[in-house]
# Entry
Amino acid sequence: MISYGRQHIDEDDIQAVVDCLRSSALTQGPMVAKFEQSVAGYVGARFAVAVSSGTAALHLAAIAAGVKLGNAILTSPITFVATSNAALYAGGTPLFADVDAETVNISPAEIERMLAKHPEIKVISPVHFSGLPCNMVAIKQLADNAGAVIVEDAAHALGSRYADGSLVGNCKYSLMTVFSFHPVKSITTGEGGMITTNDEATYRKLLRLRSHGINKEADTYQLPKNAQTNGVPNSWYYEMQELGFHYRITDIQCALGVSQMNKLDAFVSRRCALAKRYDAALAGSKLIRPAQIAGRNHSAHHLYPVRIDFAAAGTTRAVFMADLRRRGVITQVHYIPVTLQPFYQQMGFVNADYPQANAYYAQALSLPLYVDLTDAQHESVIALLLEMLG
# Structure
């Protein structure tokens, strides 16, 4: 079966994990810091904090940004539910701004409209959908004018570049950027996430939140008298300074992550080559087109989403996907609008308020795109699509 996405694991990755297993530290050891330094150094951020998942990263970022009861996070309806759930985890409220028809990214015009209506918006969380960076210059200006902070959801976008050529995650436009290392992402640690930031106070808070709210840094103890006995430091001492969580990642996962980072540029290059081949092959069809037209050279192409006019093709998406699967090709839909989920409708969200998100969803399909997809497999997928679409 040809899947829509899949990890690439080679012998270097396997050996890195084996070496960690044979070491003395399986968790809270040196590989965590090495992985953090690798990602921060790559994207150009001052700090990075590795955690157990991208969802954990979104949760901690919401808390570190100050979200609480009475505050809101504004994001896109075309995302995985974790982005908006982070607002609820932190005690705040999620809000949504519709997407742009050409990028499927959150629309700056809709952000401006929502900011005018909702002064409680504390955080704007733009989602770099499928790896295509949002219009961060416009979004940052809107956030600055409204006194809001930005937390970028870059779960799809490790290796992507902004319009100015700099790498997503450098936080030049945001307080924090969040990455995911699920197996189908740019690199994988099995499960895992990362938060980058340039703000040291935010970085220190994230470190505490990741591990039960505990601080082990002597220069920031709140009860320093308890940290020593007759002037001698108590080596065992630590302080729980706030309510935190167990969101640590293991050295085993980070060993894999460090090895994967060595191949990231090659991974992105292969994904871009496959995307360009799709673009060229599908250009002549009236029934299928890339979902994102702009910024093709800036995306890391985590996904290859298309729009298919299923009605004009005389079929439905369910039938089309089932036919593809019977012929050995697995596709997926990214995403069901969050505002279509029962939980969010029970909160009062009306899905019809987001027409562009719904128009995209009605035609959305994610085609196979991953590093190990061979040229021959790719050509067979393209040929099958064009055959099925007449």
